[in-house]
Amino acid sequence: MKNTYFDLIDQSYLFPQVGFDLQDGDLTFYGISLKYLIKKYGTPFKLMYLPRIGQQIRRARNLFNRAIKKHNYKGKYHYCYCTKCCHFSHVLKAALKEKVHLETSSSFDIDLIYRLVKEGDLSKDTIVVHNGYKTDDYLRKILDLGRSGFKNSILVLDSKTEVMRLKTLCQGTDTVVKVGIRMAIQEEPQSSYYTSRLGIPAAEILDFFEQEIEGDDQLKLEMVHFFIDSGIKDNMYYWGEFQKALKLFVELKQRCPELHALNLGGGFPIRNNLGFKYDYEAVINEIVGGIKSVCDEANIQEPDIFTEFGKYTVGESGAIIFSVLEQKQQNDTELWYLVDNSLMNTIPDAWSIFEKFILLPINKWDNEYARVSIGGISCDHNDYYNSEDMNQQLFLPTYEPTEEEPLYIGFFHTGAYQDSISGYGGIKHCLIPAPKLIMIDKNEKGDYIDTVYRNEQTVEEMLDILGYLK
Q1: What angle do CA 96, 67, 417 make, to 5 degrees?
Q2: Which end of the chain has fewer CB atoms at under 10 Å, N or C?
Q3: What are the pLDDT digits (tens) for 366-394?
Q4: Which domains does the chain have, with CATH numbers?
Q5: pTM value?
Q6: What's the number of CA atoms in the CB half-sphere (13 Å) around residue 126?
Q7: Residue 265: which of 223, 203, 316 has the closest Cα?
Q8: Closest CA to 272 of 304, 330, 310, 312
């Protein structure tokens, strides 16, 4: 009896599933032949499948609007895309086609917004929520953005000192600033600290509002913001912090009638294994119903609901494709597959926070399988990947070194944060170049279009950054 890799997947998961299928024995990604891309561009390469961005946005928006209708909820729903998750112009423009709002986290984001306006991709009616620590440069740019016509710009106060510096910058002007207050959350029990450094402790917010915002004609409180770093999870920890945020909103709303928005920072999870299960509809219904119930009990108007979805928006659109250069049997039980780039450079979340991604072979699904570890070509001992989500062992097809075609593998749903964290286009560990980046979209006829956004880094580009070509 031959136990093939296909048999293993077929027995373990529902397959095919959204985004993954086989065509002539080789893996496809949202219907795209990865073997075609490999033959055309070689490996390694990254790809971004842009249509997935719109699919994710429409799904979340539809589920929230259905829940609003179900609960006879009076507030509106606003979908914000977190620019920090992936700043590439193709990604932002794909999201903006769906009329999303934006969330910024640093001063350079404001320059990016001006560029999008200039190119006709962004309307000044867009709501822009400004998070992150506000340096003086960031504060000035936020104020300038409002003066330039962005009347829906909301500055979320992250610390008490920000409001003092904001008042100084507004002094002597007729500027009126829409502000939010971020509530510091209690971290999960396994965290290294108890309370987030971000935001203002909930017990101090009412006094802060009365002393610094109430009665100031230049500050208009519009939003309560709370952010859970681990995202919107259906567990006791999340719902506990959610209830604290609702309690704070009610108390502030009773003192500030202009307050009308509740921002649920922290996004939905994405699929990081083929057995992933998450009931998006049930969680959204619980969120909307929970807010409605608390507001009815307090006899206050339901707030507009804001979500800030970065990873959820773009994560499932990304993939990184490698060739296996060599297999090494280092002892009786450890078989290594060495790929043609560094994992530390291309998926830094895998070694920095032990993030897991979907790993699948592109070809050789009819071969038998074995437990393996994936190694990068850098000299660092941390440049490896050897377990799937829930600490399961990693299995891939076996192959003979004499086979004409190498084994190709892909890490999938890598579209969020990886390029930002690794420093796309910069200096890489061991001077291993960043792979070429392929953007995939659909034309008006629905046909796939693949274009090279940027080729693999060259020696000259790296030497120039390092100062050797001055």
Answers
A1: 40
A2: N
A3: 999 999 999 999 999 889 998 876 557 89
A4: 5-42+317-465 (2.40.37.10), 51-309 (3.20.20.10)
A5: 0.94
A6: 27
A7: 223
A8: 312
